[in-house]
Fold this sequence. Notes:
single chain; UDP-n-acetylglucosamine1-carboxyvinyl-transferase, Chain; four-stranded mixed beta sheet
Amino acid sequence: MSQIIIQGGKRLEGTLRVQGAKNSVLPILAATILHPGRTVLHRCPRLTDVDASVRILRHLGCEAKWEGDDLTVDAAGMSRWDVPDHLMREMRSSVIFLGAILARFGWAEMSYPGGCELGPRPIDLHLDALRKLGAEVLEEGGGIRCETKGLRGRELALSLPSVGATENAILAACGAEGETVLINAAREPEIVDLQRFLRALGCDVRGAGSSTVCVRGRRPTHDAEYTVMPDRIAAATYLSAVAAAGGEVELTGVDYRHLSTVTAALQEAGCRVAGEPDRVVLRSTGALRAIGTVQTAPYPGFPTDAQAVLMAALLRSRGSTVFVENIFENRYRHVDELRRMGASVSVAGRVAVVTGVPRLCGAAVRCTDLRGGAALLVAGAAAEGETAISEIHHIRRGYEDPVRDLRALGAEIRLEE
Length: 417
Ligand code: UD1
């Protein structure tokens, strides 16, 4: 059983270059199959979720080759339109392949995606969007079969700005005839990154980053090279770790604008933060204070993915901070683990109240999900004594090498395989 062992209580200091964004590269990898040719992705993070996407691509008949952190995909030889159950179960974002396969072939088959650790994660909005674009969607026996004689662009409104449904609709719309106008689209930076990638291939997508996205159906026209955007959640995790443990960190290769709600919260807690477009510097004495209510919300609100790491940063703060989780029903599973370290957090439904304690003690804890696992790293960095974190496969889904990164900042941390 692999574990991460961290001796907390050390000041963290140094410079880190942040990895490419998981939530951006996964839909981009699905999008590569729209183009029956070659795409090269730079700054592609080495994550188990990315490995799972590569396995799906290879199953579909595409070639995928790594060279450092460059990943080349050649989808010219794509010959299948089904994703088998064992690959679907590996992660939630496998469902984004649905829109892409449908756009390329007019036919797609898969089972329901995995990754339901945050409470119910339906895909009704994804399927509804595909139906409205002209796909016949059959759900039976745990499987989904989509078929179309030709997708047709139209006006399409999402009842809530789901990130995944927006991505699926955009990909399907690229293969549709005519214009699709997607209303109430998610505005996350990762949608903008997907649009940039599609435009690099020659597709006609506009408006990402606003709540109306327009896609004029058009096949990709040429090979492309593309650099994946920086991971704002990995950045938020390392900022939170340094805020909690005390010290000074410079993150490079980030987009400061994407971090504004997280840096504002850490500043309110007493950290000093300075940002330039592509770097951010945070200084913390490690003695933080409680902050006003943190409500998670779709972008540009406070990201649900950064809720757990910010909570971990505030466990030793002076006073009480209220968290309200508005996106997922079951996103406080890390709280029981944090309590083992001496944290005082009470949870009632979507609300969690963190009351700062003077000290955290290292303990044996278990990752419950990806970002909950990251929260244990943050708390472990600030705790006295040794924290042993197990079930770290959750962390590997989204962080390239947190042991390397935290060690580069001076943490006493090691991986035990
Ligand atoms: C993406 C991110 C995830 C992040 C989340 C919210 C990726 C790979 N994952 O997930 O890290 O936490 O955005 O920022 O990018 N919903 C429905 N029906 C649907 C789809 C969603 O009811 O068909 C609901 C969900 O249950 C949830 C809310 O909409 O309550 C938001 O989910 P969504 O934005 O779709 O998240 P994901 O795309 O799954």
